[in-house]
């Protein structure tokens, strides 16, 4: 009892630190060397994906060529994100990492979005990109990146990349999650299924409902 009281501040500090570490961890550590995702498994439901039988695993499960090809930027944002996450690259299952390739045409934008499950590191390989995020205290942090330069976006915060150069830009982004998830602000609010009521959006953005209808028409699926 005596010991408990003398050590109490230390124990409290320790529990607080452990709580903090637990709450800031990304994907959980894996418990085996490999667990290539069996994306088609329907009978088992786990947090992630079950492993395919080890006897069926080959070198191909740890290889992905999808980021070697330029993405098609012929769309309203003039940008394209190619994902190498557990869904496209099942060998990443349980490993806690993933990558994207981001291609942005001159004047194009990878629109404001957030990743609920990951911090993002971006390295620019070609072109010039204005990158930025907004903190929960509404502060905007940004930089113009040149090739070889990096920027980090803390987990869950809204961010974007905008091509401010006169050539195509190409970046690689990395995440501390096998499936970071993405919430694109404009398409989430104005293109959801079913749609968010117009008056909710009109009130939220302090605009007329006609403005809401006009924006929705751009994102309707
Ligand atoms: C860029 O922000 C990305 O999510 O790949
Ligand atoms: Mn992102």
UniProtKB/TrEMBL annotation:
Annotated Mn(2+) binding sites: 113, 115, 120, 159
Sequence similarity: Belongs to the germin family.
Name assigned to this protein: Germin-like protein
GO molecular function list: manganese ion binding
Keyword Chloroplast among record annotations: no
One of the record's GO cellular component terms: apoplast
Keywords (A to Z) from UniProt: Apoplast, Disulfide bond, Manganese, Metal-binding, Secreted, Signal
Positions of disulphide bridges: 35-51
Main location: secreted
Amino acids binding oxalate: 100, 110, 115, 120
Organism the protein comes from: Ensete ventricosum
Location in or out of the cell: Secreted, Extracellular space, Apoplast
Span of the signal peptide: 1-26
Domain of life, source organism: Eukaryota
PROSITE patterns the UniProt entry points to: GERMIN (PS00725)
Phosphoprotein in keyword set: no
Domain spans labelled Cupin type-1: 74-213
A Pfam short name: Cupin_1
């Amino acid at each position: 009892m005596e010991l408990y009281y003398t050590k109490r501040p230390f124990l409290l500090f320790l529990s607080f630190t452990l709580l903090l570490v637990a709450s800031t961890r990304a994907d959980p550590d894996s418990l085996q060397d490999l667990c290539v995702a069996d994306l088609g498994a329907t009978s088992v439901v786990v947090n992630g994906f079950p492993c395919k039988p080890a006897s069926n695993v080959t070198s191909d499960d740890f290889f992905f060529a999808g980021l070697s090809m330029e993405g098609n930027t012929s769309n309203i944002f003039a940008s394209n994100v190619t994902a190498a996450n557990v869904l496209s690259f099942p060998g990443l299952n349980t490993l806690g990492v993933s990558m994207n390739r981001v291609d942005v045409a001159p004047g194009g934008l990878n629109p404001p979005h957030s990743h609920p499950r990951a911090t993002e590191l971006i390295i620019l390989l070609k072109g010039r990109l204005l990158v930025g995020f907004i903190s929960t205290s509404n502060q905007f942090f940004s930089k113009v990146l040149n090739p070889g330069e990096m920027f980090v976006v803390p987990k869950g915060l809204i961010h974007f990349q905008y091509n401010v150069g006169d050539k195509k830009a190409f970046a690689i982004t990395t995440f501390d999650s096998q499936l970071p998830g993405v919430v694109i602000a404009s398409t989430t609010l104005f293109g959801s299924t079913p749609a968010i009521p117009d008056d909710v959006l009109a009130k939220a953005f302090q605009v007329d409902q006609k403005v809401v209808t006009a924006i929705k028409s751009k994102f309707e699926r």
